[in-house]
Queue: 3 jobs
Job 1
Amino acid sequence: MLLVDDMELSRYTRPDHVASVTAVRDTLLGDPGLVCVELPAGSGLILATRRREG
């Protein structure tokens, strides 16, 4: 299980930070081997775990 913090894009003003956070978000949320949920708490949380096969 992975918990990633500071994923709320509105927290960032520098384009390089926005790009980095966007890349992490897209990688996690787009991975078919993971089940992810965005938790609208604090600074933006993403909780991810491996998808169970079978």
Job 2
Amino acid sequence: MKRSIIVQKEIDVPIFDLVISFTNTLDLISPLLVNHHKQVSYIAYEISAEMGLSFEEQKNIMLAGALHDIGGITVQERIGALQFEAENPHLHAETGYSLFKASEPFAVIAGIIRYHHNWWEKGEDFVPLGSHIVHLADRVAISIEKEKDILSQVDDIVSIIEKQSGRMFMPSVVHAFKELARKEVFWFNATSQFIVQVLKEKVNPEYLKMDMEGLSIIAKIFSQIIDFRSPFTANHSSGVAATSEALARLLCFSTREQLMIKIAGLLHDVGKLAIPQEILEKAGPLTKEEFCRIKVHTYYTYRTLAPITELSDINRWCSFHHERLDGTGYPFRLKGDELPLGSRILAVADVFTAITEERPYRRGMTQSEALAVLNNMSKGNALDKRIVELLIENYGEINLARLQAQKEVCEDYRTLFAEHKDKEITFC
């Protein structure tokens, strides 16, 4: 078994690339959502620049636009937010705020997200200017009809927005938007396939970086957005991350490598955003067709992280967690030495967590049952024998780490969804 050599240098992760990659994956939830977050990000940025706001304010507003509906955990919430006067829009905004409020550098962005559906006449002083800008940008974006020529729609869109000045929208924000609306290039950019390139040109992403510690915080948030879609899997990624980190420590990974594999565990199922919720929540065996749908999630995990070259090792560890040493895994059909040690750890951690965690429709396996499954998979050369033996030898320590991590996330889930009557969690 070969251990991949990781150059011990500090990695600065580009925040812009990470956010855009994540929003690209969010687009997979529904065709109605494609490019919506990026459009809002661009329009909000242009308005903030037109109003002469500082670079820091422009950056925060741009990122808030890209993440504004992040709290809409279900498909229904996300699509519902696309109505011009959405019903109960504040729930997903409050959820988005709660997810990001305690994390730097997203604390300011969280405040913008929190109030991005507040009307000007109802909010005024306590609502951040950025929230008013994102609100208007969001409503402009949903007013664009994709099947029609964009310039033929401009007058109608401007009229819709102008009628709500002083009521739904802040007058000075409306004024800035009207100035921008006179320029054809504004509309071409907003509806262009090159919108990400345009945003990169507007705001130099080199100024938007975070270190690995910052990434671990954001990875936890992203894992909750992924897992909280279903109460059945609400704490799965946290269990995989804790198990992987414990195994890496026992394998004498450096402190930095342990953090990297924890991040990989948190992000390993990011591609599940593309999987229909009814499949994720199915109580019982999947049909052949449903299993085929599930298989694509690791591919989308890979494609989500691939543009961020700084995360190439983490990406391989994440995306290969369903590969098997004997070549029977998916989706890349890798085997043997093609699989780095990190991905082998993730594979064991994923199986271990899945079979031992409680689900509403079945109990978690006992220690003897779980070890029998892992032993059989290692004997069949599906899982790495050395890693399985390490888990068996340290079962109590590793299982306790998993349970503690999953308990913490269960509490986060209960707190976050206290107002969601359909999000009860009763199995942890």
Job 3
Amino acid sequence: MKLKFTLLLFILTSLIGFSQNLETMKKDVQKIYDLTIEKKYDIVLESTYPKVFEIVSKDDMKKMMYELLDNDQMKISYVRVEPNFTFSEIITINNGKYCIVEHNNSFTIKFKEELGENKELILENLKQTMVDYKVTIDEKTETFILDGKAQMIAISDELTKGTWKFINYNGESPMMKQVLSEEVLTKLGL
């Protein structure tokens, strides 16, 4: 009887711990999404998986983000949409916990000079490079609109001191294999 009670208590504790872990992650993900829309990138970087900053310093990353999103040629703006977050199963790999988070994502690209005939070429180029996104153009404003799904990986390990930190997943990024091992990427199905 004691064994059954102990086993039941263990299972309930594990389920509650998992639920709290997932609930914490859900709150963190929503916060990051909101901060990104609000262009508070300094705070967003605080939620970035620390190993990223072994490759690129936090200051350089911040500078690159601002330069990419608003430069002499174009401005990229995130658009608030209903993110409809989905969370994969949390899996443990080598003392780390990992979860793939997918969400709706929308942003616009507005070039600072009139595009004229080049807009069709740019539209086709964006469609070819952003294959996971629906790419359209507002002809009147010459603003490109991209709607699709984005993925990030939630990570809780020794580097994060047991808290959830995140990295945007882009399978084509060479940095991904520098940040996460081949084993982790394979077990996550990426």
